[in-house]
Amino acid sequence: MNIAEAPQVLESRTRDRVLQAISERGPVTAATLAEEFGLTAPAVRRHLENLVDAGLIVEREQGPAAGHRGRGRPARAYVVSATGHQALESDYDDLAMEALRFLSEEAGDDAVRRFAEQRVHELEQRYAVELAAAGSSRAARVDALVVALTRDGFAASARPVGEPGSASPFTGIQLCQGHCPVQGAAREFPQFCDAETDAFSRLLGVHVQRLATLAHGDHVCTTFIPTSTVQHATTATDTAPTSSTNTTIPTAVTRTEGSTR
């Protein structure tokens, strides 16, 4: 790289970092990004405009409660578009999808489910060691899970929801995954999402509920993890429920979707 090319390379790298940050924490405002990266507002807007023009992110207006702006136009926030998620995806090529379709046609959906469970089981075994080292606190175990997921390319984060210390079943932690390395497969084969949700339940010792997924067109995968003492922890012999069988979380919780560290 010569000296003349250096500014363009730095610009491109910063833009990639902005895209990754939006993936992890979207919907996120320009002001938040400017503070995080130590950039001026015009510099951040330039990167955002370039990403919008490239079709990698889209604008989303935040309501008054989220933006705290009072009168006037609601704050504009940004989330990664479907095209942006594809750009962030790892080398998950057509051959893998063809293999999964062949497996489904030849052996049935149950074979795909067993494959998805086996794949997640390998991750779960590694994560279990790290979560055990974090102790018995569910919050600490979630933090350890966030670190492990992020290391494996899921762009994870967590935030509390509900009233701290409350006995309400709707008090807990919201786990967000801004990227999914197998998103393409999960769109066609929901068994991957179900297997992952079940693994989270086993790792955290409590029934969790998947509220949103990238595979279904949401901008982030969101999982609700209850922390109330009212909840009953699972045991080693329990079979964790899939997201379709869990108790529905009320609107007040589901609207907290999105990751904010």
Using only CA atoms, what is the Rg?
20 Å
Oligomer: single chain
Q: Mind telling me which CATH architecture of the largest domain this is?
A: 2-Layer Sandwich
Helix content, binned percent: 40-55%
Strand order of the largest sheet: 4-5-7-6
Name the overall outline.
globular
Terminal Cα span: 36 Å
SS strand fraction: 5-15%
Largest sheet: 4 strands, antiparallel
The CATH class name of the largest domain reads Alpha Beta
Number of strands: 7
What is the N-to-C succession of helices and strands?
A: HEHHEHEHHHHEEHHEEH
CATH topology of the largest domain: Muramoyl-pentapeptide Carboxypeptidase, domain 2
Low-confidence blocks of residues: 1-9, 64-69, 231-261
Summary of the model, kept short:
The protein has helices at 6-25, 30-37, 41-53, 64-67, 82-88, 94-107, 109-133, 138-151, 183-188, 191-204, 251-254; strands at 28-29, 57-61, 76-80, 156-161, 172-177, 209-212, 221-226. The protein is of the alpha+beta class.
Question: Which short descriptors sum up this protein?
Answer:
three-stranded antiparallel β-sheet; Transcriptional regulator; four-stranded antiparallel β-sheet; alpha+beta; 13% strand; 2 domains; 261 residues; WH_DNA-bd_sf; disordered N terminus; Muramoyl-pentapeptide Carboxypeptidase, domain 2; Arc Repressor Mutant, subunit A; HTH_ArsR_DNA-bd_dom
Describe this structure in words.
By secondary structure, this protein is of the alpha+beta class. The chain has 2 domains: 3-88, Winged helix-like DNA-binding domain superfamily/Winged helix DNA-binding domain (Arc Repressor Mutant, subunit A, Orthogonal Bundle), CATH 1.10.10.10; 94-254, Muramoyl-pentapeptide Carboxypeptidase, domain 2. It is built from 11 helices and 7 strands. It has helices spanning 6-25, 30-37, 41-53, 64-67, 82-88, 94-107, 109-133, 138-151, 183-188, 191-204, 251-254; strands at residues 28-29, 57-61, 76-80, 156-161, 172-177, 209-212, 221-226. The strands form 2 sheets. It has a 4-stranded antiparallel sheet with strand order 4-5-7-6. Strands 1-3-2 form a 3-stranded antiparallel sheet. The chain is globular and about 55 Å long. The model is unreliable at 1-9, 64-69 and 231-261 (pLDDT under 50). Residues 235-254 have a biased composition (Low complexity). Pfam families: HTH_20 (PF12840). InterPro entries: ArsR-like_HTH (IPR011991), Carb_Metab_HTH_regulators (IPR050313), HTH_ArsR_DNA-bd_dom (IPR001845), WH-like_DNA-bd_sf (IPR036388), WH_DNA-bd_sf (IPR036390). Residues 235-261 are annotated as: Disordered.
